Amino acid sequence: MARTDVVEPRPPALPSPWATDQRVRLMEEARAFARDVVMPVADRLDPKKGEMPRALIDKMAKKGWFGITIPAEYGGMGLGVFEYCLVSEELARAWLSVGSILARGQGLGTQTIDDERRLALLRKSAKGEWIGSISLSEPAAGSDLAGVRTRAVRDGDDWVLTGTKRWAGFAKGADFIEVLARTRDPKKGEPRSAGLEPFLVVKKPGTFPKGITGKVIDKIGYHGFLTFELELDGVRVPESDRLTGLYGDEGADADSGGFASVQRGLNIARVHTAARAVGVARAAVEDTQAYLQEREQFGHPIGDFQALRFALADMAAEVDQARAYWRQVAHLLDQGEPAERESAMVKLLATEMAVRVTNQAMQLHGGNGYTTERRVERYWRDARLTTIFEGTSEIQRRIISDRMLPRP
């Protein structure tokens, strides 16, 4: 006989002091979209490593979510890091890559030298018509971006880019690729990052421009969009497409205001990653809660066994703890606080938590968890990446400890 006391998974509310009518509506809208629109697409495409349809991206654009942090006067929602992460957690609960694609808007690739063009691109970004790919890392330069070797050489009114880039997600589907390249070698006494500049490679979505070839990196998870290793061979970029705000203007050092700008961007990215990790881990908790009541052994739902009940309780507690922390750090960033150490801390704690929780969820699913018939294996694969991208856990520990102790 079927049990009548089944407890349905209950998505988290937005408690005081974080709750406002606007935030609650935004969260509920994103939650419904993730459940009704994203989840069916993820269930169909993730097992075959399929790309998210452009139609799905367009639906997100109509919601205005690519412009959450863009000021209202430029067509954005004029909201903060908190709301950006709030939506991202909900979307990542259904499919990590969909929670991630939002970062490819939010004014990315708009910091052009020409102010008029910058404002026009901001409006396009807010509408989801200017979605980009970031190409910073290289085969020998990941966490150590100062080791970038891709060269940008001035040739008249253009720059010519040559080198190899790696981990360029969504590079083919994007409207542009933001490429970090070295315009000159550091001078004596300058930091190693001196001479690094971001360039805007404008392209048609679904293609690579002249001079760029891409090789797909076959990932074990984080499906939804393709990730590439790019070869740049004489890619011409006009001076008007040299960007500002990453390492400052040409020749600026790493202590300039430009570097402060990128540091804030990195802090936001870390909190965003924490929120996405919470979304993935929450998915594992909710699916496991349902499974423990559905699966029967020895004449009982396995959720009747204390060891499994306690494991689920620990999982849920860890997720709620990480969620509270990312909200706190997002609030600090919205208040204008640097929160560099806190951003590293929440990224470290939330992503490591997601790995533990999704791993435990697979264990509680038993043999069924080790199949593609259940979503839990997707959560497990995706959670593992969150400890690596946007700075590995080891990098976060270094950031935290360097702000607590003298640097060696």
From TrEMBL:
Keywords, in A-Z order: FAD, Flavoprotein, Oxidoreductase
Keyword Manganese assigned? no
Query: What are the residue boundaries of the Acyl-CoA dehydrogenase/oxidase C-terminal domain, all occurrences included?
Result: 257-405
**Which parts pass through the membrane?**
none
Q: Which cofactor does it need?
A: FAD
- Which residues does the UniProt record annotate as the domain Acyl-CoA dehydrogenase/oxidase N-terminal? 21-114
Q: Which domain of life is it from?
A: Bacteria
Q: Which residues form the Acyl-CoA oxidase/dehydrogenase middle domain?
A: 134-235
Similarity comment: family membership = Belongs to the acyl-CoA dehydrogenase family.
Protein name, please? Acyl-CoA dehydrogenase family protein
What SUPFAM superfamilies does this protein map onto?
Answer: Acyl-CoA dehydrogenase C-terminal domain-like, Acyl-CoA dehydrogenase NM domain-like
